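Z., the sequence and structure:
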Amino acid sequence: MFGPLSISLAPLVQNSKVLSKWVTPLANWYADAARYRQYGFKYDDLVMEENPTVQRALGRLTPRETYDRAFRMKRASQASVLHAPIPKDQWTTPAEDVRYLTPHIANVVEENAERVKWDTVIVVKKN
């Protein structure tokens, strides 16, 4: 898949027991090393908002998801100003770090592809 989500090998890794066993600890280590969870972020909070596709996907979030996203952004901004992560009991756990925006982005990308497909249809008039 191309677009704001780029190419993903996740389905391949999830379908293979060997790859999953090898890649999962590496992925967990990388997420911990990135330290975004220490500031209360979820992975989808890091997606660039300037992309029009992501803007449309953000418009599809529920009011609760929108509020939670804004709260996480403000809390992380405050922690950044203080030059310290938030308290450990408020860190995002791996179980809480679910993709809430990615499905919406994927739907927007599919809709854009369908729109392009229909916009290039040639209509032939039969006499």
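The mean pLDDT is 90. The radius of gyration is 19 Å.

Let me know what you think.
H.
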